[in-house]
Design goal:
Number of strands of chain B: 0
Shape of chain B: flat
CATH topology of one domain in chain B: MetI-like fold
Largest sheet of chain B: none
Strand content of chain B: under 5%
Number of helices of chain B: 11
Helix content of chain A: 25-40%
Distance between the termini of chain A: 34 Å
Largest sheet of chain A: 6 strands, mixed
Radius of gyration of chain B: 27 Å
Oligomer: heterodimer
Chain lengths: 249, 285
């Protein structure tokens, strides 16, 4: 089977800052990939290039057959980006729930506004997903009244409501109080076990050990080493990898 | 000295309570002194006005005529703020736009209108527009002069609306930009287009942010509406000056007008405070 994500020669500069320095990546359907690295290594930037929240400076990104080279002209580019965003869902470090809508409102907003679904249809999907993340009883609460862990689970439901093929997680638990991290990781593990293709930028090594198929270590905008969790944790090869893992394990 | 007690401490100690009561008494004392000073100011003004043979009876006799002006003041201000809000929304989107025409026009509008006095703008609408109409008529555009010689109230509404619209444009723009980038990113990642994002996510939130400044602008416009008196709109200031000049009692008539403006502003500010409290009820503090 062809990889669902293909990245070739991805480069990203912010003005003079050379952040992503030529990245290649293949991700298979159903694969759970965990990206680790020091802060400033470019992991979030890489993730955000996949759904074009950041515009790549050079290189090509292909997601489920939609190919976007970096220098593409405007109109086609915008259409392609919309196609890619329809296939991907993203969960952010700071949740980014819409504060003027209830939990259910947040989840059904995408299906209604983007897919044109009726409120009834969208609510069915929304309630099912809120139930799946364990928050049916909070469906009518506003985000300000939810804990961080609850907000993040709503955010996951919101992303899933668009039926993406790939879920992107940008440090989903980094902004959470320790006692709330578990509930979010549980939802993510269940998602992984159900076969979702996931790319997760995180420091939660326990999660990686349990459900990741592959861990990839990034430093200074390049891949340094990759392997299965067992390989990476027990026999890291590169000195930079060893050094990094020593600090986080 | 510590006591090993597992009882939850329910109330502050006697010493703490005494200190709290003392603080409260101090605040009360301050407020009472404030009120005494205000009363003192009013009494002094009353004495001074008496000495100057301020004609209070005159004020009460002519009250009706002047107070009728409130209606015009409110109409012109309400219509003006509506025009201003519409222009501000369009202007803000223009200022934020990547379309060079929209951006250039909006920026010019804001800079020019904010850079010229409102009184000058009022005169342009009142005196300048008919002159343009006359010239257009001369070069063959039939009916231009009639069209461009606006009656007083519409001219006043346009003058206030266009002027305040420029200031409000910047308020709206700042309000839109104050919404965290993460909101836009979340909307995009769910698949929304920029215009859907603006309509469903950004503007509703920006609205809550800009309502206090708009409230302030409305109160300010009530007072700036006095400038349209030069166009002949029979609002408060016009009536006060007209009556004052006729009977040589300008101080009395203007005092009436001033008090009416003051009371209107106090009432509006109280309503605004209520509105802000109501809108903030869902916020976590």
């Amino acid at each position: 089977m062809a990889p669902i994500i293909k990245v070739r020669n991805l480069e990203k500069c912010f003005g003079k800052l050379y952040v992503l320095r030529g990245l290649d990546l293949d991700v298979e359907v159903g694969e759970v990939l965990v990206v680790i690295g020091r802060s400033g290594s470019g992991k979030s930037t890489f993730l955000r290039c996949l759904n074009f929240l950041e515009e790549p400076t050079a290189g090509t990104i292909e997601i489920d057959g939609v190919v976007i080279p970096a220098g593409e002209p405007g109109r086609e580019h915008r259409a392609h980006i919309q196609q890619i965003r329809a296939k991907t869902g993203m969960v952010f470090q700071h949740f980014n729930l819409f504060p003027h809508m209830t939990a259910l409102g947040n989840v059904i907003e995408g299906p209604m506004t983007v897919k044109g679904m009726s409120r009834g249809q969208a609510t069915e999907i929304g309630e099912r997903l809120l139930g799946w993340v364990g928050l049916m009883d909070k469906r009518d609460e506003y985000p300000a009244r939810l804990s961080g862990g609850q907000q993040q689970r709503v955010a996951i439901a919101r992303a899933l409501a668009m039926e993406p093929k790939i879920m992107l997680f940008d440090e989903p638990t980094s902004a959470l109080d320790p006692e709330l991290i578990g509930e979010v990781l549980d939802v993510m593990k269940r998602l992984a076990r159900e076969g979702m293709t996931m790319i997760v930028v995180t420091h939660e090594m326990g999660f990686a050990r349990e459900v990741a198929h592959r861990i990839i270590f990034m430093d200074d905008g390049v891949w340094v080493e990759e392997g299965t969790p067992k390989e990476m944790f027990e026999h890291p090869q590169d000195p930079r990898t060893k050094d990094f893992l020593r600090h986080i394990l | 000295m510590s006591s090993t007690s597992t009882v939850v401490v329910a109330q502050p100690s006697a010493e703490a309570q005494q200190n709290i009561a003392c603080q409260r008494a101090k605040v009360r004392g301050f407020v009472i002194k404030l009120i005494v000073v205000w009363l003192g100011i009013f009494v002094t003004l009353g004495v001074v006005f008496n000495l100057l043979r301020f004609d209070v009876n005159f004020m009460f006799d002519r009250l009706d005529f002047i107070i009728e002006g409130i209606e015009y003041t409110l109409i012109v201000s309400a219509a003006g703020i509506t025009v201003a809000i519409i222009l501000a929304l369009i202007g803000a989107l223009g200022r934020l736009s990547r379309n060079p025409i929209a951006n250039a026009v909006a920026t010019f509008y804001v800079s020019f209108i904010r850079g010229t006095p409102l009184l000058v703008q009022v005169y342009v609408w009142y005196l300048g527009l008919p002159q343009i109409g006359q010239q257009l008529e001369a070069i063959g555009l039939a009916g231009a002069q009639k069209l461009l010689t606006l009656p007083a109230i519409p001219a006043g509404v346009l003058a206030l609306g266009v002027c305040y619209g420029a200031y409000m444009t910047e308020t709206f723009r700042a309000g839109i930009q104050s919404i965290r980038k993460g909101q836009t990113e979340a909307a995009y990642s769910v698949g929304m287009t920029p215009s859907q994002t603006m309509r469903r996510i950004i503007l509703p939130q920006a609205l809550r942010v800009v309502i206090p400044p708009i409230g302030n602008d409305f109160v300010a416009m009530i007072k700036d509406s006095s400038l349209v008196s030069v166009m002949g709109v029979w609002e408060l200031t016009y009536r006060a000056t007209k009556m004052g000049r006729r009977y040589f009692r300008s101080l009395e008539t203007l005092t009436v007008a001033a008090i009416v403006y003051w009371v209107m502003c106090i009432v509006l500010q109280a309503l605004q405070a209520r509105l802000e409290a109501h809108m903030g009820r869902g916020e976590r503090k």
